[in-house]
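Long-time lurker, finally posting.

We've been working with Rho GTPase activating protein 42 (Lates calcarifer) and I want a structural starting point before designing mutants. I don't trust myself to interpret raw outputs, so I'm hoping someone here can both generate the structure tokens and explain anything notable. Sequence follows.
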Amino acid sequence: MGLPTLEFSDSFLDSPDFRERLKCHEIELERTNKFIKELIKDGNMLITALKNLSAAVQKFSQSLQEFQFECIGDAETDDEVNIAQSFKEFSQLLNTVEEERRRLIQNADDVLITPLEKFRKEQIGAAKDGKKKFDKETEKYYSTLERHLNLSSKKKEAYLQEADTQIDKERQLFYDASLEYVFKIQEVQEKKKFEFVEPLLAFLQGLFTFYHEGYELAHEFEPYKQQLQFNLQNTRNNFVSTKQEVEKLMKRIRSADQDYKPPGQWTMEGFLYVQEKRPLGCTWTRHYCTYEKGSKTFTMSNTENKSAGKQPEMFKLKSCIRRKTDSIDKRFCFDIEVVERHGVMTLQALSESNRRLWLEAMDGKEPVRNSASSKAPVDMDLDPETWDNKTITSGLKNYLRSACPTKSDDQNYRVCAVHALVHKLPERNKEMLELLIKHLVTVSTQSQNNLMTVSNLGVIFGPTLMRSQEETVAAMMNIKFQNIVVEILIENFNKIFHQPPDPNVPLPQPQSRPGSRRSRAICLSDRAQEAPQPLYPNTVPSRCRK
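Top reply, 14 upvotes:
Generated this for you. Predicted structure of Rho GTPase activating protein 42:
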């Protein structure tokens, strides 16, 4: 039920019913006043919470911006570049959203808090002042009326006329205060309908504008999101295939000889214990040693010395001789002579087979014996021609391993380069490759039914067709690039196998490895039909970025 109507004519009667109706309006104004106070308090809390949320989001965005992805290997695929860049894209998106939120927060006080406080103080406050004046005039009028009615009729006529004039004046002041109070109450009740609601509407409009801006940003972000989902799915597929290959390699390494010498930069490397003579005896110190046969360079790094910055010791090897078992109380020992030191350096290997590998690498000799013995081991000196060939082969492998993978920013050049390399294959090999790729093209055209997209076929046949001869973790990490080459063969089948290559296209050549790796992504395949263009061209790496 609504509030009762206040008639101006009732102000003259000042009946109990009028007072009761007036009381209802006063209670409603007081309730409105308390509600506005609570609303202002809650509004300030909301604005403070928005400020705290904005600060937290900005801190979160800053953390995303500062994080730097690092991937295994010396180069990255397009997928890895886009994934590594994604945190910066997320940070940029959050910052854009927070710009809109900051505008909302900056306007919230002027739009919501100030108008409500103004309405409460000016309108409801004016009604309260009118009530005070009305109560004061009411008390004054009725007290004057009582004194007037108590006057004796025996008073002089002039005195009575003066009293009548005074009571009429007080009555008029009372009526004026009553009319003004009734008018003000009704004015506040009517203004409340719009001056109270308008600030809330304006605040909600700003809030909805913020939400709408977020929706628009999300809509603009959709192409980049789809691109990133595509990159993530490719990376997940590559991970599954690479993981299987790495697990197989781990099992083979686990079952191999513990003294297996993996391919590396050095002819031989590993831990050795070095005998160091002291005034009261000698000590054995563990060093990590390397030996390069071509230059006969022997390097020792003390792993037990905690002092930082100490450089490894480098020596030029003169000779290497196995230590006689009965000449020392340690096992697996051998002696070396170096140019930089006088005398012999005694080293201890980790096992007999490990010592044999070191002796083979250093062209180790057997110790000279005074008498012949049927128990003497076979001479460790090997055929120098054989070792020269191996040294050359090892050096060539090391050069190829250290060479930077070929990369280009031009997608057409990549396709042309693969095109030219395919036509350099022996004819029978090329025919077999064409037969296989043709079948894969047929399979990919039915991808909606068999789910074998070009990307999935690359994951399956990349490691099969382009497996590295060296079974190392680094080679396994390069499977993702092999997958991309197979994708190029499938996507450009007609051009690669049915058209002659451009003779003017230079083939990729091995390059020296640059210092920075972040800008050296290898991106070969162009799957534009499967992935939308990035939203932010200035910040999102393209499919053809280094």
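Before you design anything, note these points.
DSSP finds 14 helices and six strands in the chain.
Residues 9-134+186-222 form one domain.
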